[in-house]
């Protein structure tokens, strides 16, 4: 199957490190995914479409249910039945558009139907909400991918389509030839998308006025691929709102990207809270003091969690070796005892005592066992923390891929007034091919 596209990769952006920022970023995106043929996997459909606000799913459609449905209570309560009916018809049209175009691209790429091929489309906008409540447009996104590779993207500044591969040039020429549609796409990204995002923000905040939630902070390390090194990870989870500051400190000094610090960025959990992880590779024998520093508006003072110097899985091999040595030693005792028994039956009582004696672990082995238990607890904790965001991650990985044309975008966010433009766009562009 095709690899993931940069669309999904965009959801792992680097976290901003400013606390109580002067603005707050919001985004609204629609993502469509079409497969060239069905796959026998649960939850994976031939066509899927969904809306995402701040990477949280707000609506959904697939080729089995064939109905656009709300995924948030405030969407269900605030938007009328007419919105969902028109949205369902719009996505049914897009489903047919994708069926045609994934086949066109397979022919253009000289691919057969033996493997599964994927056509995706993402469009939407990102804004900054200033402290005074005004919204500032940051960027618009309108891009397609095929089998995990970027295929076509709209340049908002020049109002032209950008073709990163030769196979996309015929489509670029065709779509750039209808400038009114490019003007419409720019207008949608910069104005209409922002208007709908503003409306959705208002709906959500009135319906979902949850209290601030402070982060839980964890520090742990796992063995790195580099010999005699570990990956030290700081994790904060369960916080709301999403703005957070996290640093890894060494002896009180903040480490940066230049020191090898990596971040997942802020990711959503299944319960509308957020999480973030940062990690850095350090020598296993390092005796410096490492701390996870986290600040959030729900905290009275920052949390500083010091790493205890333990590694989750560094001692497992040592424990196995020590255990093997103990077993070998016991076998040697057993063999020696049996030899003695053959030579002198009087020793049988002692042999029996040896064979029945409880096995004692020396200090090293018991340390290993304790480390192993600690290791399992650490790994289980990490797995549990990672899984908090799995609902959203699974949704992202199963999400459909992209749009039909500039018009289809419009009908997803606000159907009504854009129906004519959508029909015009679909009739004009018809398909990706000539």
UniProtKB/TrEMBL annotation:
SMART domains: IGc1 (SM00407). Keywords: Glycoprotein, Immunoglobulin domain, Membrane, Transmembrane, Transmembrane helix. GO terms for biological process: immune response. The keyword Phosphoprotein does not apply. Pfam families: C1-set, MHC_I. Residues 215-304 form the Ig-like domain. The keyword Glycoprotein applies. SUPFAM superfamilies: Immunoglobulin, MHC antigen-recognition domain. GO terms for cellular component: external side of plasma membrane; extracellular space. InterPro entries: Ig-like_dom, Ig-like_dom_sf, Ig-like_fold, Ig/MHC_CS, Ig_C1-set, MHC_class-I_related, MHC_I-like_Ag-recog, MHC_I-like_Ag-recog_sf. Residues 403-434 are annotated as: Disordered. The chain crosses the membrane at residues 320-341. Belongs to the MHC class I family. This is Ig-like domain-containing protein. The lineage of its organism: Eukaryota, Metazoa, Chordata, Craniata, Vertebrata.
């Amino acid at each position: 199957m095709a690899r993931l596209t940069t669309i999904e990769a965009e959801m792992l952006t680097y976290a901003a490190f400013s606390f109580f920022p002067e603005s707050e970023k919001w985004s609204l995106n629609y993502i469509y995914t079409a497969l060239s043929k069905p796959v026998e996997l649960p939850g994976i459909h031939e066509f899927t479409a969904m809306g995402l606000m701040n990477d949280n799913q707000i609506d959904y459609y697939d080729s089995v249910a064939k109905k656009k449905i709300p995924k948030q209570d405030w969407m269900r309560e605030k938007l009328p039945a007419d919105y969902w009916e028109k949205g369902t018809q719009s996505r049914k049209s897009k489903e047919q558009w994708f069926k045609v175009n994934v086949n066109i691209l397979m022919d253009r790429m000289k691919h057969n139907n033996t493997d599964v091929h994927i056509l995706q489309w993402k469009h939407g906008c990102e804004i900054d909400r200033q402290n005074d409540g005004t919204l500032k447009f940051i960027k618009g996104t309108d891009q397609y991918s095929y089998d995990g590779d970027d295929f076509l993207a709209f340049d908002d500044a020049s109002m032209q389509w950008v073709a990163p591969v030769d196979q996309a040039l015929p489509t670029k020429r065709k779509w750039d030839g209808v400038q009114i549609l490019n003007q419409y796409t720019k207008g949608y990204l910069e104005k209409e998308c922002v208007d709908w995002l503003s409306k959705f923000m208002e709906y959500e905040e009135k319906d979902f006025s949850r209290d601030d939630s402070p982060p839980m902070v964890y520090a742990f390390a796992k063995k790195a691929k580099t010999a005699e090194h570990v990956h030290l990870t700081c994790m904060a989870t369960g916080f709301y709102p999403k703005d957070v500051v996290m640093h890894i400190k060494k002896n009180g000094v903040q480490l940066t990207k230049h020191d090898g610090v990596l971040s997942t960025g802020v990711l959503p959990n299944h319960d509308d809270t957020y999480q973030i992880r940062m990690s850095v590779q350090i020598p296993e024998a390092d005796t410096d003091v490492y701390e996870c520093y986290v600040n959030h508006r729900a905290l009275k003072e920052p949390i500083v969690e010091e790493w205890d110097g333990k590694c989750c899985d560094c001692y497992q091999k040592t424990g196995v070796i020590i255990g093997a040595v103990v077993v070998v030693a016991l076998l040697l005792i057993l063999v020696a005892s049996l030899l003695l028994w053959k030579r002198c039956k009087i020793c049988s009582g002692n042999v029996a005592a040896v064979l029945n004696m409880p096995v004692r672990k020396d200090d090293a082995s018991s340390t290993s066992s304790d480390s192993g238990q600690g290791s399992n607890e650490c790994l289980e904790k990490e797995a549990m923390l990672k899984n908090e965001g799995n609902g959203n991650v699974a949704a992202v990985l199963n999400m459909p891929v992209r749009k039909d044309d500039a018009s289809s975008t419009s009908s997803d966010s606000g159907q009504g007034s854009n129906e004519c433009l959508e029909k015009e766009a679909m009739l004009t562009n018809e398909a990706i091919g000539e």
